[in-house]
Amino acid sequence: MRQTRTWLAAVAMAFAPALAGAHSEKEGTTPADRAQLTETPEMIHMVFDDPMRITIVRLVNADGAEMPMERGTGLEPSLEFHAEPEPLSPGSYTVEWRGLASDGHAMQGSFSFELAE
Ligand SMILES: [Cu+2]
């Protein structure tokens, strides 16, 4: 279940001259990008192919307001990140994250999901 890599392309362009090796990439998320859900996900989960230190992660609604989320993964580099959102109202949500790949490159990405009535 490979995700689209447009998020990486944007970062790659910003770092194009320095982009030589392979840095960690996002392998997948739960919920999957653009998932349609009927209830609040128990966990926000991201998997990387190489340890990633997630420095900032935000769950925002369609208005850009940040929703509370309890972080289950600390600041240590990890292949998996998870956080537990509080119950959400129906609507569109985006998870935005920033991190440091194991090669030291600054990375960022986002994915979205929709919660139906
Ligand atoms: Cu890199």
Supply the key terms.
117 residues, mainly beta, Immunoglobulin-like, eight-stranded mixed beta sheet, 1 helix, elongated, binds copper (II) ion
Explained architecture:
This protein has 117 residues and is mainly beta. The chain has one domain: Immunoglobulin-like (Sandwich), CATH 2.60.40.1220. Helices cover 8% and strands 51% of the residues. It has one helix spanning 6-14, and strands at residues 26-30, 35-37, 44-61, 66-67, 69-71, 78-85, 91-101, 106-115. Strands 1, 2, 3, 4, 5, 6, 7 and 8 form an 8-stranded mixed β-sheet that branches. Strand 7 (91-101) and strand 8 (106-115) form a beta hairpin. The longest helix is centred in the N-terminal third of the chain and has 9 residues, at 6-14. The protein is elongated, with a radius of gyration of 14 Å. The structure holds copper (II) ion. The site of copper (II) ion (CU) has 5 residues, from loops.
Query: Helical element count?
Result: 1
Topology-level CATH name: Immunoglobulin-like
Q: What share of the residues does DSSP label as strand, in percent?
A: over 45%
Radius of gyration: 14 Å
- Following the backbone from N to C, one meets helices and strands in this order, namely HEEEEEEEE
**Rounded average pLDDT:** 86
- The general outline is elongated
Largest sheet: 8 strands, mixed
Which structural class fits the helix and strand makeup? mainly beta
Q: Which ligands, by name, code or SMILES, are bound?
A: copper (II) ion
Q: What is the count of β-strands? A: 8
- Pick out the low-confidence regions: 16-20
Distance between the termini: 27 Å
